[in-house]
Write a structure and sequence with these properties.
The complex is a heterodimer of chains A (210) and B (295). Chain A is of the alpha/beta class. Chain A has two domains: 119 residues, Response regulator (Rossmann fold); 66 residues, Arc Repressor Mutant, subunit A (Orthogonal Bundle). Chain A has nine helices and nine strands. The longest helix of chain A is centred in the C-terminal third of the chain and has 15 residues. The two termini of chain A are 33 Å apart. Chain B has three domains: 80 residues, no CATH class; 59 residues; 116 residues, Heat Shock Protein 90. In chain B, the strands form two sheets. A five-stranded mixed sheet of chain B has the order 5-6-7-9-8. In chain B, helix 7 links the parallel strand 5 and strand 6. The chains are: A alpha/beta (210), B alpha+beta (295). At the A-B interface, helix 1, helix 2, helix 3 and helix 9 of A face helix 3, helix 4, helix 5, helix 6 and helix 7 of B.
Chain lengths: 210, 295
């Protein structure tokens, strides 16, 4: 990796942008050429500025999804190396990124040298994804103890869908959805659906809308 | 006179119609029309009228015509559906509550981005605290080593970095205005943005217009080598419509919709908007955004 790699950072939080910029600047042969706040303009800058590596947040300015933008860039410009950098713990983001051909996936709370290593491995052609999700506590239960199907229901619940709408979207019966919601309430010991949905969102376990 | 009547139906006739049942067909018409004595109420019309009795109970009536020895006989049946209606009422209330909850969660989700940023800000503050501590240790070390001038540069750089980070925390940048963001992006890639009409200053409509504008800009740069992107905005009572054109090389044949326009289409169609493209006489991307989505 001797040739200089032009790096773009898509991050709308100035603190995180400053922090990630500092890490990029430590990287050998990495040159930070563009920091933008919204994923909306990521593709056009990749086109115009010969970007070699993109560090992309998930929830970016103007409610633009970093995952959607990353998948689009990989399709249009497969040579651009792309890393999703997020603080969201939603497993669905990893699935979507992987399915869309995004090269790597990392967390903003990783140590500086881990982030540098992630960039280096990605630039050497590796695809680096987390082996497991960080575990957080949702009410009384660990996030690792909630299975995929319950998590899918939780995601739609947090998106404000009714039981009927969730059932239609997930191709399950309304009774099954009701059962899942009450099981989630029982496990977490939250008093109601609002508390459950709000806490799941706050922890980044679900990322509705992105 | 009825051929056969049981006590329950007899009592129902008294309660609903105020008199004993003399003719099943007449009683059925009374039920269907909802003209009752004593406070009974018709709550559901149709082939099986539902009556709320003065005591709050519900009865559902049905009518059948029976053939008895070649004669047509009308049979009326009444079923006690009180529990069913109470449960249905409770279900309606629960559904209303769930709908309201859904609306609250949608509004919460709109603030989710802000919450996420605050969480990240907190982590960054913790990191700054650590950085300040480390830089203090380095400064102290440099000062006690006897050759501070050799280490002045790196230590100053470390302090500069800490100060920059603190400045970001103390003076957070306001969220970018969608129009300004689009204009600055266009300018940065060498394209002048011309807006004809009123671009909403903020809110979801402005964000969706910016998403459409970004798509038009990307296409103009990728395919057309354009230098000017024009957005003609117009409004109807329900929709805001934007028509994007550019001065670049125009496509020779109809374009195949890729991930960009496809993604925009699904985003807008989900909320009742639309996306269309034309290639003649010039390439044009038109989006319509429902105004109720205006923020």
């Amino acid at each position: 990796m001797n040739e200089e790699v032009r790096v773009m950072l898509v991050e709308d939080d100035p603190m995180a942008a400053r922090h990630l910029s500092a890490i990029v600047e430590q990287g050998e042969n990495l040159r930070l050429v563009r920091v933008i706040e919204s994923a909306l303009s990521a593709e056009v800058f990749c086109l115009k500025e010969r970007i070699g590596l993109v560090l992309m947040d998930v929830c970016t300015a103007m409610n633009a999804s970093g995952i959607d933008a990353a998948v689009k860039i990989k399709k249009a410009m497969p040579g651009v190396r792309l890393i999703i950098m997020t603080s969201q713990l939603d497993a669905e983001l990893i699935d979507r990124a992987r399915a869309g051909g995004v090269d790597s996936f990392g967390y903003k709370f990783m140590a500086d040298d881990e982030i540098l290593e992630l960039m280096g491995r990605t630039l050497r052609g590796e695809s680096v994804y987390p082996d497991s999700l960080p575990v957080v506590k949702l009410g009384s239960v660990l996030s690792s103890e909630i299975d995929r199907q319950h998590m899918n229901v939780l995601r739609e619940l947090a998106d404000g869908l009714t039981d009927d709408e969730i059932a239609e979207k997930l191709h399950l019966s309304v009774n099954t959805i009701k059962k899942y919601v009450s099981q989630l309430l029982m496990l977490t010991e939250f008093r109601n659906r609002t508390e459950l949905a709000v806490n799941a969102g706050k922890l980044g376990l679900v990322t509705p809308g992105y | 006179m009825p051929l056969l009547i049981n006590r329950v139906m007899y009592n129902l006739s008294l309660v609903i119609d105020g008199r004993s049942l003399q003719n099943a067909e007449d009683f059925w018409h009374t039920l269907a029309e909802g003209r009752f004595q004593n406070g009974a109420e018709l709550v559901s019309h149709g082939e099986q009228p539902v009556i709320r009795l003065p005591d709050g109970g519900f009865r559902t009536f049905s009518r059948r015509e029976l053939d008895v020895d070649g004669r047509v006989v009308v049979q009326l049946l009444a079923a006690d559906t009180t529990d069913l209606h109470r449960l249905a009422g409770r279900l309606r209330e629960n559904n209303d509550a769930l709908r309201k909850l859904g609306a609250r969660l949608v509004s919460y989700n709109e603030q989710m981005g802000e919450l996420t940023k605050r969480e990240e800000l907190l982590s960054a503050k913790i990191r700054i605290h650590d950085d300040v501590g480390r830089t203090l240790v380095r400064t102290r070390y440099a000062l006690t080593q006897g050759h501070p001038e050799e280490q002045v540069g790196p230590v100053l750089e470390a302090w500069q970095s800490v100060v920059d980070m603190l400045r970001c925390t103390i003076e957070p940048k306001p969220a970018p205005s969608p129009l300004r963001y689009l204009r600055e992006t266009a300018q940065a890639v060498g394209v002048a943005l011309v807006i004809n009409g009123d671009f909403p200053p903020a809110g979801r409509t402005a964000e969706l217009l910016t998403a459409a504008g970004s798509e038009a800009l990307t296409n103009a740069v990728r395919h057309g080598k354009a230098t000017v992107l024009t957005a003609d905005l117009s409004e109807t009572p329900c929709f805001l419509t934007a028509r994007f054109t550019n001065n670049g090389i125009q496509p020779e044949r109809a374009i195949t919709e890729g991930g960009g326009i496809g993604g925009l289409r699904s985003k807008l169609e989900r909320i009742g908007g639309s996306v269309s493209t034309e290639t003649r006489p010039v390439f044009c991307l038109t989006v319509s955004i429902p105004k109720q989505e205006a923020g």
